[in-house]
Amino acid sequence: MMLPIELMSLFEGAWPACLVTSSVEGIPNIANLTRVWCTETRHVAIANQLLNKSFRNLEENPLALLKIVNPQDLIHWEISVRYIRSDYEGTLFEQIRQDIETVSWVAGVPLPAQLRSAVVFEVVSVRQCVEESVHLKPPPETYGDLLNVLAAVHDWNRLSYWIPGETDEDVKLQASRGVPGAGVDESAFDSMKRLARLVKSESRIVRLKNIRSQLRYLHSICSESVEQGDRPAATFTEGTPVSYLAFPILSSHALAGIVCCEGASGQMESVHSVEDRYLASLAAKLGEVLLTISSIPAPEREALFKQVIELAKLQWQKEADPFHSSLSARERQVAVNVAKGLTNAEIAKQLFISPRTVTTHLERIYLKLNVPSRAALTRYVMEKGLLAEGSE
What we know:
The protein has 392 residues and is an alpha+beta fold.
């Protein structure tokens, strides 16, 4: 298994780790470690200085468990590993030896024992210890702050936030905003709850449009069934939302929550104008913030959420701009050099292409960006702050 790149901070030695091994008879042993080294994306290593019992266990039973704390958010991780070899010399052995000797020298403390070997493991699986991170979960009012900011930035008026429950299908409501009947009608959240369950089970963004017309269709089908004595016809009221949108919030690849949005009449555009790729990027950024939001003072939470959401919007607008989505890397270079005032001949010399090729690129750029001239292209690049974008 490959280790996710976002977990590389686990192997910087900021927090001690521990190694759990077991003998062939099933007798466990726990050893404290100062550090675990990530040698590549599929392998990790530890220093064998005083690992007498642990090393004997590994020779009998190669399966072991490493437990490490992420220094960025204090979340614990369990890494299941398989012992594959011990290096008594070589590049890895020398790297680990130098690392532990450097720490000893800086601390002014002699080494308790010399390095015997570098013990190398293959990564089998990685698990976030959610049960040990309860103290890091945001208080319920934090989710209300998040919904307030989402409503203000995206003009979403009916929102709810759900977290995974104890069972596979269960979800728990944490906060809501603008939902008719909230606190009065027990069925006010029935549709959103079913939607949250669907998002949880399928781990995807869910969009439902034109609900009323679809319910009318179901109503007509069910009416025919009723005449035949099958089952009651489906009904809907004028208060039924016309659309739904829901997306999962992920923290370190684990489901942290689900945002559900109802769209009433006249709100279809605000609910469905955002694209799935933007929502996925937004959800990832919100997931990162929710890992550490419990340490942020309550008055500052809405400001932090707004900053994160606005940053996600700016990043998406940049990525969705035709300059990035339509132009090739070479065309972006030509466009930026035009904005810098270079002639076609100067651009050709700088990019090691012919002047005719520069002209061809410009014709395509005008078409893709819908700009009529060199001056309009220059204005386009300058107004969008793209001068540094053509250096790749």
